[in-house]
Each structure stands twice: as structure tokens, then as C-alpha cells.
Amino acid sequence: GTWITPSFGDYFSLDDILTTNERVPCKIELPIPKLGSLDSSSKEEDLKPGTKLDLPYWLAAPLLSRRIVSAEVPKVYRETYREILGADAVAVDLYRLQPQYYKFGLLIQRLPVSDVEYVNNSLIEAFKNRFRHIMDCSQGTLKEDALDVTVRLDMSERELFSLGREALDDLQRWMRRDSHKIATASMVTNHRKRKRAALTESS
């Protein structure tokens, strides 16, 4: 069937730029003229079939759609790492594996590569198993200890941790009555001033 090149997301989003710049293991299937310099191990002017390269997603995707290259799932989404995440997802340093683990994984799902059907389940299970731990830490970790928690989280999880922390801060401010205090509306205050002024003038 026809495979459609996926959207690369928000052109102005730094996260999307970083994610689409992540590498995909590829093998050249058709000669590509004038791009031999991409293969640092060769002095050829052209890229020859059989050459293996790690290409950024934004380049690999359109080449795959034209069958100029074939590709494999990046190693952090392969069976070995899926098994590690399945055994104890909370203990895994996801940032070290892939800083944009979830976002890049969602892009990989769109590529015509083997094993891609297992990536989706792996992403869902990893997120489900780590979500409660992240939220518990965001609610109970001292601010000075937060770095010890977030250093092991991928970028999406760090955003989630920050949202949990902000929600806790908002709740604590509300409980201390630091926010949403009842105050006289400015319209009422101005009305009272005008009324007093009118009474003064009439007396």
C-alpha cells in the first residue's frame, strides 16, 4: 500500500525540532548521487546500495516513503529494551535511553519498519507504569530533591512532573488562603466613593 510521509509537527517547536533530529538506523537501497560524504567510512562521491547510516528522522522519513532506504526500529525500542521496561519501568533512566522517548516513539510508529507494532504497546505500558511514581514524587518530593527524580525522566515526563508540582503549590496556596481572597470589587469601591462625594456636595 501507499505510505504517506508523516507530519513533522510544529515548525517553531524546539521539542519537535529536537525529536525529528533523532537518528533512525537506515540502509541505502538505491544509489544516491553526490551524498557520499554522509558516509564517513567511505571516500565515494555517491551513496551506494547496502551502505548503513543513522539518518535524522526528518530525512529518513521521506527517503523511506520513496523506498530509497529501508530502516530498523532504533535500539531503545527493540525487544531487549522493551523487556527491561516491562520488568521494572520505574527504575529505568529513560532520559539516558532517549530524551524524547515518547515523542520519538510516536514518530517511529508511523514508519514502515519491522517490530513497529510492538512499539505502541511498549510506550503505553511504560507510561502507565511510571505515571503514578512521577505524580507521587511531584506531590511528595522536597524541592531540593526534585533533581534526583527528574534526572531519570524523559522530557514529556519532566513536563508532567512540573504540572504536578504546580498543582500542589496552587493547592497549598489556596489552603493558606494566599490566593482567591475575597475582596471588594473595584466597581463597588468606586460607587461608594462617588456616593460619599455626592453626599458631601449636597450637605
UniProtKB/TrEMBL annotation:
Q: Where would one find the signal peptide in this protein?
A: none
Matching entries from Gene3D superfamilies are given as: 1.20.58.2050
Intracellular or extracellular location(s)? Nucleus
Subunit record text: Component of the GINS complex.
- Specify whether Nucleotide-binding is a keyword of the entry: no
To which protein family does this belong? Answer: Belongs to the GINS3/PSF3 family.
Role of this protein: The GINS complex plays an essential role in the initiation of DNA replication.
- Taking every annotated instance into account, which residue ranges of this chain make up the domain DNA replication complex GINS protein PSF3 N-terminal? 12-63
Gene Ontology BP term (one): mitotic DNA replication initiation
Q: What is this protein called in UniProt?
A: DNA replication complex GINS protein PSF3
Keyword tags: DNA replication, Nucleus
**Bilayer-spanning residue ranges:** none
What InterPro entries is this protein classified in? GINS_bundle-like_dom_sf, GINS_Psf3, GINS_Psf3_sf, PSF3_N
Q: PANTHER family from the xrefs? A: DNA REPLICATION COMPLEX GINS PROTEIN PSF3
Q: Which GO terms describe its cellular component?
A: GINS complex
- Is the keyword Nucleus assigned to this protein? yes
